Amino acid sequence: MGAEGFYPEEAPVHDVFVAGFWMEATTVTNGDFARFVEATGHVTTAERAPDPAMYPGADPELLVPGSLQFDPPDHPVRLDDWSQWWRYLPGASWRTPAGPGSDLVGLDQHPVVHVTYEDAEAYAEWVGGSLPTEAEWERAARGGIDGARFPWGDDEQPGGQRLANSWQGRFPYENTVEDGFAGTAPVGSFPANGFGLFDMVGNVWEWTSDWYVARRTVTEGTGASCCSPGQLRRPDREDSFDPAMPEMPIPRKVIKGGSHLCAPSYCFRYRPAARSPETIETSTCHLGIRVVIRPDNLAG
What we know:
alpha+beta, four-stranded mixed beta sheet, 10% helix
């Protein structure tokens, strides 16, 4: 698990042992999520007004239901300022993924987006499963090929073939769409990995159940185990707060897999080892859900 030579939060490379589990072959689709909402009446976070107490000093006009939407500029911008291409879009939700006036026509098999951790966890529980741990997710994403850059090996485009939905061109203002998709792709549009799992990298990021810390703590020993706290310390909720934003102590979860907005020049994270933080109340147009089933899910 992990990688060297890319981003510091992926290090160190270490051994992790996980118990057996099953994983859904694809991310949760809009069609799947619609059935969940119809059955349960679930109202997503993006469809509710944010709590002003969570966002001290926020513009009151933004404290309305909505979600983060990619809004590309038409010219080069500095890559250290994400506000140049992200904006909070009132009215954006899983039902209206491009904002007010949009709908899900033709998107039934696309991954559901604009879902927070709460929404993802509620869906997983409804189907009798769980969200994967980071270790489970990475084990599954590698498809049985340990240590490779991608789920299919080290060559990003074997034989010139693109095997994931990512960004081609100069991010964030030029997408040459060489992979055929400017936004999300229908699930299963690219070949499965060695475990029969589709889109483990690219298309949309995926929530995991682990709290985020910038660097994992691995103690001395022969390896690390998610079940052996003396070897790999899994962080607590309080560990996940962003030290750069002490005025907003919102916990963060690990998300994995990268998305269709990942480009080598900016976010080379459509790889199994890559990881990123996301605050639990945040939803975006490129973050979705995948479910695992463990033996303990079936105990009841």
